[in-house]
Amino acid sequence: MAEMTPSEAPRRRFDPLTAVAVVFFLMAVAFAAAPAINAGPATLAGLMLLVGLAGVACLGLFVLRSSLEAPAEHEPSAERLVEALDEPAALAAVDGRIHACNAAWRDAVGEAPRLPKSGASAASLFSALAAARRGEAAHAQLKLAGAEHHVEVAPVGPRRFLVRLKPARSEPLALPTAALEVLTAAAGAKPPPPKVLDAFAAASPFGAALLEGEDPFNAVIVEANPALGAMAGAIAKGQAFGDLIEAASRQDAAQRLSAGGENALEVRLSRDPSKIAHLYLSRTDGRWVAYLVDVSDQKQMELQLAQSQKMQAIGQLAGGVAHDFNNLLTAILMQLDSLAARHPVGDPSYEGLNEIRQTSNRAADLVRKLLAFSRKQTVQREILDLGELISEFEVLLRRVLSEDVTVETEYGRNLPHVRVDRGQLETAVMNLAVNARDAVRAHGGTTVRIRTARVSEAEASALGYAGAKGDQALIEVSDDGPGIPPEVMDKIFDPFFTTKPVGEGTGLGLATVYGIVKQSEGWISVNSKPGEGAAFRIFLPIHQPAVDAPAPAPLVKPKTVARDLSGAGRILFVEDEDAVRGVAARLLRARGYEVIEAGSGEEALELAEQHAGEIDLMISDVVMPGMQGPDLLKQARQYLAGAPVMFISGYAEAEFSNLLEGEKNISFLPKPIDIKTLAERVKQELQKAA
User: Do residue 161 and residue 30 come from a single domain?
Assistant: First the structure.
């Protein structure tokens, strides 16, 4: 059993026999000392009287003090009251040490000097003690003397508690209120005021602190749980709570708190301003309770979602702009064809018309970039050998890059086949190579490297493609330039973002590359360190031919020969853009075709019904106000009698191909188009239908 402190030991009561013995002892000492000081009888009598009076006075003071300090017989001490209880009971300190216990306790659990301080029992006891410190009775499950016991804990002072063994948890604490008052009085203090940071706050995964002061941001931290220290750093005793919050964020939060109406204040931590937390404040018993919840990951996800939505909106805008611009370019190119027929080479107007055509082609290339970014570009995939593709493209690439920039190529072994759009992939590699050239020329570099290889799933993951499945085809474009600054790394694929001066870049190069790679079902990663150059890696899925499928025949480009683009037949031309419809119809009529014009899907349906069975070919735009091209086809098919249908659009065919399931004799021609291309396709479709 633990020893009691002097302040806790029971005081002794006054004993009269002991007092009389003390007085006679003092008188005997005086009598024995008389000869030594040559005292006469009178002097001895006086001395004995003085000793007697002094003894009586001391005994009186002792009696008075004992009467004031000793508890009355009907006011037992906490220890005595514990001894008087019939059920097993003990007095315990806040750390679990047992100060006193009764016989029933010793019989039940033995002479253990303290309550459990580890394991599940300790957690249950800690929670009960925390409640008792708030002045409440609480329950706990303890393992004592090898057996499970249910105990009830009640406060009897600032640092002592009454612990009783109970047979069932469901029974309430039955100690009379008067007995609790006696225990409290015996302990010499009232129950402690309620505390805020109890076991729940101490074990919570978010930061919690008890603050002392009027202003929470200038208040002193009285208590803090471990989670707050892990989040905000080491907390010194007496530290101001506002020191944990970044200065600008603290000032903003203080203003919002004074304005009222906000439950959660968003703050940044001084330890790491990139960490964002929600601060919750409440006033309790004259103190502030502060909770800090780390929401950095949540904010990051919100930013990524917002960025994704922004990119999606920009993609839709780019696709819409490209669609409308393609209509304008189609009208411009067709008008140029008409004018070129009247102003051949040698005509004074020929040079001007040629410049307009070149400018239009540049505009068409810009539109293709927009469509590639928005992933709505028309894709014409073919099976290509990766090594041959880059080898053929290298010749053109060396002409584009400056002579002061060295181009190095490295071809890996066992290069795979890929199924991609040749033109798109060449555009992506060209954009990367041009960016690398500009970087090395502006900052003293010399070399642009292009590497192709077959990489395994593990190698692809190590190179930046964490979601790779199976082997991948790799195209890497790197340079020895200055590298990409960390602050712009997250923006390089954003459309219209460029580090070049105004007028020297559109900011669509890398955005176009990103769109092409994604449209090709690939992945692109970037590795760059300041001063060490940059490496862009394109990963493409390897084409796996079907079992027993014959090897694809090599593509042989047919020789370009002059063709007769005239013909005969009735064409229903449906286009909502007047400029495109008017010039296309006029040029087709000039080549011998009969053209019926319709400015909307509804008008085309009426004309198809009027000329039922007499239409040889229907040419229709896809996206139109009101009835769309695919809807027009489904309703007009009964009047076309199997005639072929050709859709023209600035969007990719994949955007609406699912709307044409089950339809036959359907072809697609992407905008912008010139009259030569249109006339060739019209003649081909009519010949196939003949």
Answer: no
Segment (H or E) for 10 = none
Residue 71 has what pLDDT?
43
HSE (side-chain half, CA atoms, 13 Å) at 551: 6
* 3-state secondary structure (DSSP) of residue 384: strand
What is the structure's pLDDT at 502?
53
DSSP 253: H
- Strand residue runs (E) in 412-489: 417-420, 447-455, 472-479
Contact by Cβ (8 Å): 634, 628:
no
Report d(CA 497, CA 510) in Å as an integer. 9
Does residue 273 form part of some domain? Answer: yes
pLDDT score at 172: 43
Q: What integer pLDDT is reported at residue 176 of this predicted model?
A: 46
The dihedral region occupied by 508, where left means phi > 0, alpha psi between -120 and 50, and beta the remainder, is alpha
For 542-660, strand residue ranges (E) read 570-574, 594-598, 617-621, 645-649
Helix, strand, coil proportions of the chain in percent (round to 5)? 45, 20, 35
Instruction: List pLDDT tens digits, range 585-614.
Output: 988 998 899 999 999 999 999 999 999 989
- Same-domain status, 58 and 158: no
* Co-location of 425 and 511 in the same domain: yes
Q: Give every CB contact of residue 457 below 8 A, 6+ residues apart in sequence.
A: 468, 469, 470, 471, 472
| Total number of domains in the chain | 5
- Which ranges of 34-75 does DSSP label H, i.e. alpha helix? 41-69
Pair of tokens at residue 368: 């293709």
| Owning domain of residue 115 | 78-187
Low-confidence ranges of the chain (pLDDT < 70): 1-77, 117-124, 126, 134-136, 145-146, 157-158, 167-203, 261-262, 285, 307-308, 311, 315, 318-319, 368-380, 444, 495-508, 546-564, 651-662, 690
Element (H, E) at 146: none
Pairing mode of beta strands 138-144, 147-155: antiparallel
Distance CA 294, CA 225 (A): 14
**What value, to the nearest 5°, has the Cα angle with vertex 528 and ends 485 and 512?**
85
Is the dihedral angle over the CA atoms 498, 501, 504, 506 positive or is it negative? positive
Residues 434 and 530 in one domain: yes
pLDDT tens track for 514-530:
888 888 889 999 998 88
Cα dihedral 595, 596, 597, 600 sign:
negative
Whether the CB-CB separation of 531 and 479 falls below 8 Å is answered with: no
Q: Measure the CA–CA gap between 78 and 91, rounded to whole angstroms.
A: 8
What CA–CA distance (Å, rounded) separates 433 from 534? Answer: 11
CATH code of 211's domain: 3.30.450.20
Give the torsion through C-alpha atoms of 393, 395, 396, 399, to 10 deg: 150
- For residues 335 and 390, state if they share a domain: no
Q: Are residues 395 and 521 in the same domain?
A: yes
Find the CATH number of the domain harbouring 646.
Answer: 3.40.50.2300
In this prediction, residue 603 carries a pLDDT of 93
Same domain, 532 and 395: yes
Decide: helix, strand or coil at residue 653.
Answer: helix
CATH code of the domain covering residue 504: 3.30.565.10
